[in-house]
Structures are given as C-alpha cells and as structure tokens.
Give the backbone structure.
Amino acid sequence: MKTATHCAVLIFVAIIAACSAADGGERPYRRSFINPYPRYKFYEDGVDPGEPLFLTPLIHNSSMPREQVQKLARVVGSQYHGVESYAGYLTVDKGFNSNMFFWYFPAQQDADYAPVVLWLQGGPGASSLFGLFTENGPLELDAHSKLQKRNYTWSKTHNLIYIDNPVGTGFSFTDKDEGYAKNEKDVGRNLHEAVMQLYELFQWSNSSGFWVTGESYAGKYVPALAYHIHQVQNAIETRVYVPLKGVAIGNGLSDPLHQLKYGDYLYQLGLIDDNGLQSFHAAEEKGASCIKNHDMECAFNVFDSLINGDLTNGSLFSNLTGYNWYYNYLKTHDNSGENLGQFLQAGETRRSIHVGNKPFHDLDKENKVELHLKHDVMDSVAPWIAELLAHYTVCIYSGQLDIIVAYPLTRNYLKQLKFPGSDRYRVAPREIWRIGGEVAGYVKHAGHLVEIMVRNAGHMAPHDQPKWLYEMITHLTHYKH
Ligand SMILES: *[C@@H]1O[C@H](CO)[C@@H](O)[C@H](O)[C@H]1NC(C)=O
Ligand SMILES: *[C@@H]1O[C@H](CO)[C@@H](O)[C@H](O)[C@H]1NC(C)=O
Ligand SMILES: *[C@@H]1O[C@H](CO)[C@@H](O)[C@H](O)[C@H]1NC(C)=O
Ligand SMILES: *[C@@H]1O[C@H](CO)[C@@H](O)[C@H](O)[C@H]1NC(C)=O
Ligand SMILES: *[C@@H]1O[C@H](CO)[C@@H](O)[C@H](O)[C@H]1NC(C)=O
C-alpha cells in the first residue's frame, strides 16, 4: 500500500515535469527577454463584439460637434465601476489603412488642468493595455477576473492615454506589410498623428502639458515620439500643437551599445561564475563590434543568444542560470497574465471599447511587429535623448531588481551621453528619496535630467511599487525642476 502510494506520487511528479517541459516548449515567449510581457492565448466567447469605431472621419468632419464624437467613443458598462473612459481607432496612415487603438481616462481630479500623459508598452509588440491593467491604470483584474478599482492610479492626477503601438500591436492594425514600423522614425510619425487627433477630439489645454511615458522597449518609442513632435513643431506650422513638456522612461532600452553589459552585473549578483563571466564578455564584445560595423542583424542575433532568446533555443543567460524570467532577479519565472488575455478578447469587452472583431495581435504565435523591427532592436536613440535634454524634462527611472534593462546598464549609457548638464551629471550628488518615512529610492538631478533608482522594484516598477511610482510621476508633471 505504502509502496503503491509512493509510486503514484512519483508518477504524478513525472507527469508534472513532462507537462511543464512541454509547456515551456510551446511558449517560447517565456524565454523572451526584450519582450518581458506575457503573450496571450486566442479566446472567443461567441458574444457579439459589435463594430469597430473609426473616429478619424468624424474628428475631421467640421459639421459634427466634438461632444457628439466623444459620446460615440465613450466606454460604457457596469463592469467599469463608473470610471469614465473613451476608446476607438485613429487612422494614422490612410494608404496602408494603418489604425491605432487608444483608451483614454480623464483625470479624476481637475481634468481641465491635469497634465496629459501617454503610456507606451515595450516588447516590441506588447499591448499598452498590459500597463493599463497591471501597472498604472484606474482598473485591475482581481483573482476572479473581475475588474476592481486600483488604489494608486496615474489617472488620479493625469489625463491618461494608452495607445497600442506600433501598428500591428494589440488591437492596432495595418492592412499592408509596408504599414509596419521598420524603425523609430516610422514609430514617431504614426504616434504623432494619433496624438494630434486626440488633441483635436479632447481639446486639452496648452497649459497642462503633454508627457510621453513608457517602459522597456518604449525606451525607443518614447524618445521617438517626443523627438518627432519637437522636430516637426520647430520646422513647420503643424495642424495641431502638442504642448510637449517632458518624458519618463522606465527600465528602457535606448542605447544598446552601452547597455549590453550584462556579464559584470550578473557576476556581482552571484548568478554566474568566472567561466560564465568570460562567456558573457566574449559575446558582449562580439555584439559591440556588430553594432560598430552597423550590422544590426548580427547584433540582434548576439543579443538573442546572449540573453533574449526570442529566436534561440536557450540563451546563454537561461542556460547558465536556469532563469525563465528576466524582470526581477528574485524570481526565476512568472505565470501571470492569462486572465487579462481572456478579458480583452471577450465579446462584451470588445463591444464596449469599440474594437469589434478586429484581431488582438498580442498573442503567443507570431510577432510581426518585432520581425519588422529586427534591425531597429540594437540601434540607438541616444542622440535624440540628448537633443530632448536640451529642451524638456527627461526622467529615467529604473526598478532596482530588473535584469534585462538593469539600472547599472542604463547608468552606463547616461554617463556616455553628451547633453547640457552631462558634466554636472557625472558629479551630481545622490539624494535619498523618501515617501512617508520609507526609502523609496535614490535621485540625481543634472540639467533637465532626473535619474531615479526605485528600490525593491523589478522591470515593471509601477506594478511593484504603485504608491511610489504614483508619487514620482505626479511630482514630475506638477512641479518645476
Ligand atoms: C459630416 O457630418 C454630418 C452630420 O452628422 C453628416 O451629415 C455628413 O454626411 C458628414 N460628412 C462626411 C463627409 O462624412
Ligand atoms: C487598497 O486600499 C484598501 C483600503 O485602504 C485596502 O484595504 C486594500 O488592501 C488595498 N488594495 C491593494 C491591492 O493594495
Ligand atoms: C496652444 O499653443 C499654440 C502655440 O503657441 C497655439 O497655436 C494654440 O492656439 C494654442 N491652443 C490653445 C487651445 O490655446
Ligand atoms: C528549437 O527547438 C525546436 C524543438 O526542439 C525546433 O523545432 C527548432 O527548430 C529549434 N530552433 C532553433 C532556432 O534551433
Ligand atoms: C543552451 O543550451 C542548449 C541546449 O544544450 C544549446 O542548444 C544552446 O546552444 C545553448 N545556448 C547557448 C547560447 O550557449
């Protein structure tokens, strides 16, 4: 009897081991590094999803009152607990039929004067609705997949917008292969068009100011949009003026040449030994020389086999450490995200946010957005950040426990950056940042740069430390620096 039970337990354990191995094989995103977000499964519940709402022709129809268009975009449903919001499609390129999906939450306090904040997820190819529901939006899903109000949301003090970016991500789509972004100029141009249309529709005041924020691969997107706005508005009279004030980038990949320095970090953390360190150094040197030779395909492949693992079977990092999770060095894996995929694809949700039956692209199968951006991944936006630093507030914040875009890697690129204030940055004193008597992190100021390390947070810092990040963004957008 005893032996039989013992055997049954062993078999059970073996089955679990076999299942999780199969699971890992079918879901390569678990090894994906620059795309730290869960990718979702296809889901359809047969509920009528309604029709997609294309707002651009309505916004540009002068005989249609703005209030009427806003009313059409209004998201209605008892599941939202009375939280006011608007959603729909903006056509950003008519020729390719490229359309961007947005979801906008007016500020809960003083909406007429609240700063306008755009949040962009990374990936490439991760839906910004991930940030909405798991990081800083007014609603989150509880353990029973029901929406609840979030205690600390950036929409309390900001007019908060989420856009699925670039086209082909989440609910955003394009009809043509040429519609996909191939570089950050494409990204900046399409986002600028979407933001101008949102200003036409919602008419936020100039005095409140516009801020671009985001995380991870949005370390490229955020500067791309801000730089595009800066350039266009200084060169020509634009259809719509966007009162850009600054940007905030969380654990952002912006300057891969100077951020490709994992070996020393992992060695100091004790996650690799001297042999591992040698292998990392060799690969990092190779990656740097690919970048210097402008061979971005080669650089992508080095990055992929070193740590990313999108197109490689087992990166050096996962082989040496056994980690399947790169966003917090205290965790080797993470299995959250399943219920968000179902919620977003449910007919009732689709109808309420006006996407109809348009495909949700953030699935675990293909990632056309990343493939089109393959040569962009290891390219740098550092010169754009330097130019922005001459005119606008630039906040670079880093969750302390992240690996993929770790704090010392980001420090390394900032130290190389030439901008008004770079000399001061090198010697700037570090201040302890306290909230309610707790040490939230450390801050450095130099010129328009605000550099922050957020203590006890991983890659998704607003999820890990919601109160501190809420205080951080509110302080940044409401006070002079
Ligand atoms: C503009 O809106 C008016 C009023 O709703 C409508 O009658 C007209 O057909 C619209 N024009 C276009 C070009 O869609
Ligand atoms: C939100 O705040 C309420 C009231 O202070 C508290 O009971 C609850 O635990 C908080 N929820 C989370 C997820 O922190
Ligand atoms: C905002 O500022 C721009 C540039 O100074 C100006 O052209 C525009 O009319 C202003 N818009 C509003 C709504 O005041
Ligand atoms: C990775 O492994 C899978 C299954 O073993 C195989 O089908 C695939 O071709 C491999 N990919 C690469 C890039 O080696
Ligand atoms: C990781 O291990 C796998 C399986 O042994 C091997 O195929 C792969 O080449 C290794 N990856 C690297 C980058 O060394």
About this structure: Residues 442 and 475 are 15 Å apart (CA to CA). Confidence is low (pLDDT under 50) at residues 1-34.
